[in-house]
Structures are given as C-alpha cells and as structure tokens.
Write a structure and sequence with these properties.
This protein is α+β, with helices and mostly antiparallel strands. 24% of the residues lie in helices and 23% in strands.
Length: 266
C-alpha cells in the first residue's frame, strides 16, 4: 500500500496542480530519502508532465530529466501553498518557484525520491512487468508468461516483474471476483480462468481509480483526502463474503490473503 490505483490517483491530482510549475529545490529531512543521481541544476526545471509506471510517480521535467517518487508502504505527497514547518513524519519537500511545495510524508521511511535522465527509464524500470491497464495485458500475455509457473496464482499476480502495480488488496479482490482459489498453481489455470483474471484486473483497478483508491490506514490523496474504494471491497479485511460465507485469512508469500473457500473452489 499504496498500489496502482492509489498511485494513479496521486498522479491525476498532481496533473491538475503542478503542471507548468518550476522546481527550485528538493529538501531532505530524513537521510537516504533523496537518492538523486544528477546535479541540483538538473531538477531545476518546469514540470512538463506527471505520469505513472507501476507504483512509481514520474514527474517529467522540460529538460529531459525526471523526478521519480516511490511511496512504498506509507508515503504520501501533500500539496501546500503556505510555508509551514515540516510535519512529524515529513521526509522531504519539493519546492516550486511560486513558493508552493509538495511534502513527502512517510511514517515508515521506506519511500524514495530519485532524479534521473529520462533516457535512463529503460534501465531504471528494467525489472517492471507489463502495465495491467494496457492493451498488451491480455489473455495471450498470461498464457505466455504463466505456463512454467507452478507457484500459487496469488504469488504470480503480485510479482512486479510480471505485472507492474498490482498489489495485495487488489489481487485478493480479483481472485474472489474471478472465483479462483489463490492457492491454485498458476500453470493449472484454464484459458477461461485466465480470461476472467484479465477482465477482473482491469475492472477492479479501473473502479478503484474512479473511487480515488482504497484508504485503510495511511493512504491519502494530494489534498490529504481519503479514497473510497474500501467501501466496495468484497473480501479483503472482511469476515463474511457478499454471499454470506466465512472468509479465510491465510499467508501466501508472507502476504495476508483473504478468500472464500466456497466461492473460490476453482
């Protein structure tokens, strides 16, 4: 957490707020938050675009560089227009020429900020898999990439080298809505199963983006408001599924996994 829908929501908010603004400095209040691989002058430029790759936020500058923010577990960006003292968990701050700024608040301190040439994107993101909302993520992609995977399908869905941005909450929801047991070996799924997974991944992620993400604990939007997709979760964090059956909670790959043995027999 945050996962793809939360990151996309932040990107959407930033596109409305910081396009055209000029970054003048990036301050660090906690060691190793900023891992700049360029000189200060390289990020002193105007914001041309804000984009997303997996769970990364890309602030594209007009000088061929980019500031890349990874929120990880508890990071959030908060836009402010009035100068204020750093918050208790504020790890860094991106300052703009009009005196507005983005706070990078991060309780667990795992989040990072990088600055790299845009030409380095292929290397920087070399370990990220396909974007699940892209047209290239389809039945053929799953068929080609799952045939040798004997690990549980839940583990496959969370492998960022295969599918970029899909996280634990949404993997649980996708498998429930697909009627597939999260423990089932990935290469034992039928083409019908895989088609369901593709359909539900796109559907669940898009619905979550429309709801501005899921707020369970730390996630907030740029204006510090919460998302609302938690109101539509069917299994994650629940005790009873929508059909009235008990939900089991187990660990798969160290991650909490919620599923219904009755609805997810496949």
């Amino acid at each position: 957490m945050p996962e793809l829908p939360e990151v996309q929501t932040v990107v959407n908010d930033l596109q409305e707020i910081i396009l055209g603004k000029e970054i003048v400095s990036i301050e660090e209040f906690y060691p190793n938050t900023i891992r700049l691989t360029c000189d200060d002058s390289d990020y002193s430029a105007k914001v041309l675009q804000v984009d997303r790759r997996g769970k990364y936020i890309l602030i594209i500058l007009d000088n061929d560089f980019a500031v890349i923010v990874h929120l990880r577990m508890t990071g959030k960006l908060i836009y402010e227009e009035l100068d204020q003292a750093p918050l208790k968990h504020e790890r860094a701050r991106i300052n703009f020429s009009d005196n507005s700024y983005l706070r990078f608040d991060d309780v667990r301190t795992f989040g990072t900020i990088d600055c790299i040439p845009q030409a380095d994107f292929p290397h920087y993101f070399r370990n990220l898999g396909i974007e699940p909302l892209s047209d290239d993520f389809n039945l053929n992609y799953l068929q080609d990439n799952i045939k040798k995977i004997s690990a549980p399908i839940k583990s496959f869905l969370l492998d960022q080298r295969k599918i970029a941005g899909l996280g634990n909450i949404y993997a649980c929801e996708v498998l429930y809505r697909s009627g597939i047991n999260p423990l089932k070996a990935a290469n034992k799924l039928t083409d019908k199963d895989l088609a369901k997974i593709v359909k539900e991944i796109k559907s669940v992620l898009q619905q979550a983006i429309e709801c501005n993400g899921t707020t369970i604990s730390d996630y907030r939007r740029v204006d510090d408001k919460t998302g609302s997709f938690q109101n539509f979760l069917q299994v994650y964090g629940k005790n009873i599924c929508p059909k009235g059956h008990d939900i089991d909670k187990i660990k798969i790959g160290g991650r909490s996994t919620y599923f219904c043995k009755i609805c997810q027999k496949e």
